Amino acid sequence: MTLVLEVDDWPGHLPGQHVDVRLTAADGYTATRSYSVAAPQDGDRIELTVQRVPDGEVSPFLADGLAVGDGVRLRGPVGGWFVWRPGQPDPVLLVAGGSGVVPLMSMLRARAAAGGPPFRLVYSVRSSDDVLYREDLATLAGTPGVEVHLVHTRKAPEGEVRPAGRLGAADLDAPSRDGAAGAPAEPTCYVCGPTGFVESAANLLVGLGHAPDRIRTERFGPSGP
Length: 225
What we know:
By secondary structure, this protein is of the alpha/beta class. The protein has four helices and ten strands, in the order ββββαββαβαββαβ. Helix 3 (134-141) links the parallel strand 7 and strand 8 (146-152). It starts with a strand and ends in a 5-residue tail after the last strand.
């Protein structure tokens, strides 16, 4: 579920940043969760994409219980390392696992709006039913200099050349400066997803020769109150 929030006097944000959302129950109990911003700056509006966690305290309410006009408390924007700034000259390799695609989607949308260097998204999902932003990604994949590569880990679509399986080194071709995959390049790499996925992907990138200081990671896992 993608929520569009209007925030008075929003100071602006960079693609890749997140906000802390705080909810307070009638009995005074509070819970705070962090959510990546899913779209680049748009005045006082921000977009958050929330994945429902069946036994979660916050995500079911945000996805199913929040009505138009309801208010929530926000803190942010947060983060200054895992960001892409329009104007960065180097190619970009984005690696996402599941809902880790959300902050990377903000980067892709910002690049589509402002132009920029070649981008390549490698997006790991269990099956085609788990792809977030399916239509938007199809549109972005038709943008010059942008490539989208889906990695299906459990079930591949009929006719897919790549069989289902975990992300591997062969999936992580870098974008070249002319937009073609596989050519020599020194991209900035952004990796986001569950902790185990991020560690595995980062190790694969280092093994392929990417400098560790050019690999930026953002990870998530189970949250407490």
